[in-house]
Design a protein that fits this description.
Blueprint lengths: L1 H15 L3 H14 L6 H11 L21 E10 L3 E5 L2 E11 L4 E6 L2 H8 L8 E10 L2 E4 L4 E4 L26 E11 L3 E5 L12 E2 L3 E2 L3 E11 L4 E7 H4 L5 H5 L1 H11 L3 E11 L4 E11 L2 H9 L1
Parallel strand pairs: 4-6, 13-15
Antiparallel strand pairs: 1-3, 1-5, 2-3, 3-4, 5-6, 5-7, 8-12, 8-14, 9-12, 10-11, 12-13, 14-15
The structure holds zinc ion.
Zinc ion binds next to loops.
Amino acid sequence: MSDNYHQLVDFISKNSGLSNEDIERRIEAKQAKLAGLISKEGAAQVVAAELNINFDKQIIKISQIVPGMRKINLVGKVINLFPVKEYNKNGRSGRIGTFILADETSNIRTVLWDENHIDLIANGQIFNECVIEINNANLRNNELHLTSFSEIKISNKLIENPVVSQSFFKKAINQFSPGEKVSTRAFIVQMFEPRFFQVCPQCRKKVNEIGECLGHGRVVPERRVLLSFVIDDGSDSIRAVIFSDQIEKLVPKEELEVPELFSGRKKELLGKEMVLTGQVRKNNMYNNNEFFISDVGEVDLDNLIDELEK
Ligand SMILES: [Zn+2]
């Protein structure tokens, strides 16, 4: 995502007259203020909003979409059109149209909620391989969502080489390979008790029972904690591990220490869908992959940003 981040900084800089360095400083300050609750890209969006920069008229590429973005305009080719689905949930019923939209940079799952838009699929005006222009769409759950405030029209632009493989945002767990840094949206399906351990403050390696480091001898060890849990996105499940510095994004530290508080939090987290970013590593002992989490995000970042902007 770092290319997008830089594009975003350039864009904000160009439209505000502030230097890139200045913008980056504001973004870092915003991120620090929000205690890591928000990604760099998300913080950039908030900074852009504070500077009254809007992306309203801007046609962007799919790879430039970042979490939390709203009023998205883009042109893309429909590469995989799914049958219109009917739903009936909590007394509300309606139809949902879904397709994968691609441009030269990436592709994204696109969801239509408006009956008039869905009719475009039903009556064949939107079909596989057609190019469309979308205005005023929002990003939700890493998908592009179109409401009745959005517009959709057939475009005569050409998209020669749409990216058909590997979507930009999320990767399904069954496609994870060791060494990769990935982001995925998945449900927490199982969570284990936190494990406390002590490390050498100099080399961060585990110390033995009497507080000695193999390389540094007797040290005053630091207490660390790790939490492991299992996530599942429907394609597969994987064991995820999160360490001391990041753990707070999932469970407040004080709750880790108190079993009753922890089990309450655990209950809340089980079954919850989250956006998880991290690195896939091979566990040689068990010959399987593990997911080392570096960032945890709420699925609905829009709400978070709304709250922060107040
Ligand atoms: Zn050491």
